[in-house]
């Protein structure tokens, strides 16, 4: 009998996206081919503690609420020996002794946001010499930061939404930036941004901290939006809203020397927009309200436009030196222009997430997709 490949599956983390990571990993574990892979479950609490033998994430589901990784009476801390590579994963017993978790062949970090998707943990595994699924340090860090994503894409000749970047460390937050509202308005006017505006943290995901600003010249509303975003990141993007449909593509490149593959594009349809013109794709629409939106793959756009969206997604993925996987989110305007909104290097893997849905519609089933990613990481 062939020996199983041992996969350290990591989930949770310190980021706001912690519960989404937990839901994603539950779906991944239920779909994992256990005839080929043996999962070693490593959870990361919101405080950043790595643990094993905690609650089994396979039982987590969105309809049961947002889960999180927590210590349990039987859980143990994970200790790493950096120089030992795949043999350097240990658990600390109650008596203080260390017990090996066995050899780890590859890591599958189902982690979203800072400290999981931003190049930090990728750098750790690079130092250990342990293969891992997903983009490398540079691509992960660049794509996590919306400001630098836009900078790299613009340099590659890819259209992006106009916007300005604020360093909120330069402003006194004691009054929630109320004193700086007029200054923020001046920056918006100088950049020629048109309303509505979207104010968002530069390094956050799942729409955390995002506010839609619609009232032209309302300094109080703009300041409040900047303050909300600053709670998630000191770097804040004020971006011009684009009259467009949001079309998303899944990109797959299991090994660095392979040509990336791009899925059929999908579209998130906001089902309540007819009743509420102000609806946008926020956290609740993505994860909490099954009636708020649904995914359509392929998107209902002309074939020629489908191919331009796919070509743009490929170009964006290459611009950040992507490897493994990414979801590229684009805006398609009524005039047929294609702009890139953002790149997610570890997109959601929940049962309703676009990335697996897009590949399923393109001919790669969920379990096969996970297998392809793991095997690619092992041999790249």
TrEMBL record:
Active site (record annotation): 17, 206, 353
Claim: Secreted is one of the keywords in the record: no
Pathway assigned in UniProt: Cell wall biogenesis; peptidoglycan biosynthesis
Annotated ranges, domain ATP-grasp: 150-375
Family annotation (InterPro entries): ATP-grasp (IPR011761), ATP_grasp_subdomain_1 (IPR013815), D-Ala_lig_Van_CS (IPR000291), D_ala_D_ala (IPR005905), Dala_Dala_lig_C (IPR011095), Dala_Dala_lig_N (IPR011127), PreATP-grasp_dom_sf (IPR016185)
EC numbers for this chain: 6.3.2.4
Binding site for Mg(2+) 1: 329, 342
Binding sites annotated in the UniProt record for ATP: 146, 198-200, 206-207, 239-246, 341-342
Classification via NCBIfam families: D_ala_D_alaTIGR (TIGR01205), PRK01966.1-4 (NF002528)
Family that this chain belongs to: Belongs to the D-alanine--D-alanine ligase family.
Task performed by this protein: Cell wall formation.
HAMAP family for the chain: Dala_Dala_lig
Record-given protein name: D-alanine--D-alanine ligase
Organism lineage string: Bacteria, Bacillati, Actinomycetota, Actinomycetes, Bifidobacteriales
Gene name of the record: ddl
């Amino acid at each position: 009998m062939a020996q199983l490949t041992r996969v350290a599956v990591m989930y949770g983390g310190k980021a706001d996206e912690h519960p989404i990571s937990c839901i994603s990993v539950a779906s991944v574990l239920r779909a994992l081919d256990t005839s080929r892979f043996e999962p070693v479950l490593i959870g990361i609490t919101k405080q950043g503690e790595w643990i094993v033998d905690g609650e089994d994430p396979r039982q987590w589901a969105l309809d049961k609420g947002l889960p999180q990784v927590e210590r349990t009476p039987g859980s143990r801390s994970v200790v790493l020996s950096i120089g030992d590579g795949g043999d350097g994963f240990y658990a600390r017993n109650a008596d203080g002794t260390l017990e090996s978790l066995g050899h780890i062949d590859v890591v599958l970090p189902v982690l979203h946001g800072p400290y999981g998707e931003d190049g930090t943990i990728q750098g750790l595994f690079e130092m250990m010499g342990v293969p891992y699924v997903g983009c490398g340090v540079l691509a992960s860090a660049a794509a996590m930061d919306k400001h630098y994503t836009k900078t790299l894409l613009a340099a590659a000749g890819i259209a992006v939404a106009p916007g300005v970047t604020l360093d909120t460390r330069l402003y006194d937050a004691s009054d929630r930036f109320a004193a700086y509202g007029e200054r923020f308005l001046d920056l918006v006017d100088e950049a020629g941004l048109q309303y509505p505006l979207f104010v968002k943290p530069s390094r956050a995901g799942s729409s955390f901290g995002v506010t839609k600003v619609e009232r032209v010249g309302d300094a109080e509303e703009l300041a409040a939006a900047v303050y909300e975003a600053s709670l998630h990141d000191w770097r804040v993007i004020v971006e011009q809203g684009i009259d467009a449909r949001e079309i998303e593509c899944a990109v797959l490149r299991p090994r660095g020397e392979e040509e990336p593959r791009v899925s059929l594009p999908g579209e998130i349809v906001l089902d309540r927009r007819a009743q509420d013109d102000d609806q946008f794709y926020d956290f609740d629409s993505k994860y909490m309200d099954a009636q708020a939106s649904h995914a359509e793959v392929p998107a209902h756009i002309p074939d020629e436009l489908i191919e331009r969206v796919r070509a743009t997604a490929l170009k964006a993925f290459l611009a950040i030196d992507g490897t493994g996987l990414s979801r590229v989110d684009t805006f398609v305007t009524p005039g047929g222009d294609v702009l890139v909104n953002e790149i997610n290097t570890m997109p959601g893997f929940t049962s309703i997430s676009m990335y697996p849905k897009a590949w399923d519609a393109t001919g790669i089933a969920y379990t096969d997709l996970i297998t392809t990613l793991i095997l690619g990481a092992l041999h790249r």
